[in-house]
Automatic annotation (TrEMBL):
Taxonomic superkingdom: Bacteria
PANTHER family xref list: MAJOR FACILITATOR SUPERFAMILY TRANSPORTER (PTHR43045:SF7), SHIKIMATE TRANSPORTER (PTHR43045)
UniProt KW Nucleotide-binding keyword: no
Name used for this protein in its record: MHS family MFS transporter
InterPro entries assigned to the protein according to its UniProt record, in alphabetical order: MFS_dom, MFS_sugar_transport-like, MFS_trans_sf, Sugar_transporter_CS
UniProt KW Thylakoid keyword: no
Length: 511
């Protein structure tokens, strides 16, 4: 069997990567706009409940990914890699576009969140078939001794998809009006739909590129020899030896990789925005810079895994995450602790505004005072006091600090702390495509590798933002309690992977 030329392999990677990047872009828009979507598609009487509902809907898209892996993995092993993950692209793009068209909760009531949920489930099914197809397709074109290097380029697309989604959101948010405040208000009202709608243009371009691709040479050879699997599901999960490898891939690699991935990027952004209360733009650009600096390490670790093996790079990433998460997030909180800063320096008052609103039962009036302050370092914040006036008696209420604009040193400290987390992501994620491909025979590879990958990432990883946020609402005294979920999952995976995964896998054994 002949391998493609150097130019040919880069065309394969380019065509696969563009489509995969767009699918991840489509998937990540929802998570990046969770707070805005919560106000659009759920009752706004309880913002925390609305956010949790949005995160649960976001998580639902991950939960169905294993089912997508079974459906599309089977198709990929029966009819080929090319047309299967072309189909997943169409489903993903169409669902994303449709979310941008759904009327708000105020317009159609509970039909809005139901429609969003249905489309999220479609997105999850499509993504369940996308990754396995793209990784398998590239791996089966690449030289066996350089699979880690070439498949690592596919690994960058998920992070780059998040990067592009954040960039489009920020660009849209600031381009709707010459007045920044008006532009932001328009974005929150209807402009948030634009990133969803423009994705259809990206999908059309990607479909055109993918239609020009040829089938994988390994699958073509298998098909010409009449050795294509008749029942990929039975061969993947009905045979004891292969099932053992599926379970080992899940509990010894992808489960931990999934929680490290979604903690380092999604939960990090949620924490910065909702716990640290950092300004919307800064919370996004912090992540963008961290992604820019860390992305090359996907390729570095993928290439390195060709030389020293996949196992220990992935295990090291999990180990570092387990011991670093709480110190990192504690530092994020300390850096934005306004009372601590006030004790060191008295901030200057920039502006004060007051709002009075009656409580729903009419028994009292809520007086909300918003005061804008700034420190000499350049950091600014809004102090919000909620006092209750009942029978001419004022009762002091909740005091919160919101809309924190970080000063330059603190901003770059945040970039560094998020970069460290994304660096862990590159360690566990860079080598994993080659690792999974080499575990399974060509004729059932699409099905066998897709399922553990999407259970690990979809169920264990995708639930991270929701479970971590939910834990903080239950155990309110510890803002870092949510981190115990990814720490525990990564630790269990680290132990199983260290004990049972081999670092010596012959790259040709299953071809």
């Amino acid at each position: 069997m002949s391998q493609p030329t150097n130019t040919g392999i880069w065309k394969v990677i380019g065509a696969s990567s563009v489509g995969t990047l767009i699918e991840w872009y489509d998937f990540y828009i929802f998570g990046s706009l969770a707070t805005v979507i919560a106000s659009q598609f759920f009752p706004n009487t309880n913002p925390t409940a609305a956010l949790l509902s949005t995160l649960a809907t976001f998580a639902a898209g991950f939960i169905v990914r294993p089912f997508g892996a079974l459906v599309f993995g089977r198709l990929g092993d029966l009819i080929g890699r090319k047309y299967t993950f072309l189909l997943t692209l169409v489903l993903m793009g169409g669902s994303t576009f449709a979310i941008g068209l759904i009327p708000s909760y105020e317009t159609i009531g509970f039909a809005a969140p139901i429609l969003v949920l249905m489309l999220r489930l479609l997105q999850g099914l499509a993504l369940g078939g996308e990754y396995g197809g793209a990784a398998t397709y590239v791996a089966e074109h690449a030289p066996a001794n350089r699979r880690g290097y070439f498949t690592s380029w596919i690994q960058t697309t998920a992070t780059l998809g998040l990067f592009v989604s954040l960039g489009v959101i920020l660009l849209t948010r600031h381009s709707l009006d010459s007045d920044p405040e008006v532009s932001i208000r328009k974005f929150n009202d209807w402009g948030w739909r634009i990133p969803f709608l423009v994705s259809i243009l990206l999908v059309v371009v990607s479909i055109y590129i993918r239609l020009k691709m040829n089938e994988s040479p390994l699958f073509t050879k298998l098909k010409s020899e009449g050795k294509v699997s008749v029942n990929p599901l039975k061969e993947s999960f009905g045979h004891k030896t292969n099932l053992k490898m599926v379970l080992l891939a899940l509990f010894g690699a992808t489960m931990g990789q999934g929680v490290v991935w979604y903690t380092g990027q999604f939960y990090a952004q949620s924490f910065i925005e909702n716990v640290c209360k950092v300004d919307f733009d800064q919370s996004r650009t912090i992540l963008i810079w961290a992604i820019v600096f860390a992305t090359p390490f996907f390729v570095l670790f993928g290439s390195w895994s060709d030389k020293i093996g996949r196992k220990w790079i992935m295990m090291a990433g999990m180990l570092l995450a387990v011991f670093s998460y709480r110190p990192i997030y504690k530092e994020l909180m300390t850096a934005t602790d306004i009372p601590n800063r006030i004790s060191a320096e008295t901030p200057a008052v920039a502006s004060v505004s007051r709002e009075t609103r009656p409580l729903p039962d009419g028994s009292a009036t809520l007086q909300i005072t918003s005061s804008r302050y700034s420190f000499s370092t350049g950091m600014s914040f809004t102090e919000v006091k909620s006092d209750t006036l009942r029978n001419n008696v004022t009762t002091a209420g909740k005091l919160t600090y919101t809309e924190k604009k970080l000063d330059n040193p603190t901003y770059w400290k945040f970039v560094l702390l998020i970069f460290i987390q994304v660096f862990f992501v590159t360690m566990v994620y860079g080598p994993i495509a080659a690792f999974l491909v080499e575990l399974f025979p060509t004729k059932i590879r699409y099905t066998s590798m897709s399922l553990p990958y999407h259970i690990g990432n979809g169920v264990f990883g995708g639930l991270t933002p929701f479970i971590a946020t939910l834990l903080t609402t239950i155990y309110t005294q510890d803002a870092l309690v949510g981190l115990w979920y990814p720490i525990l999952i990564a630790a269990v995976c680290l132990v199983i992977g260290t004990l049972y995964i081999s670092n010596k896998i012959d790259p040709n054994v299953n071809d």
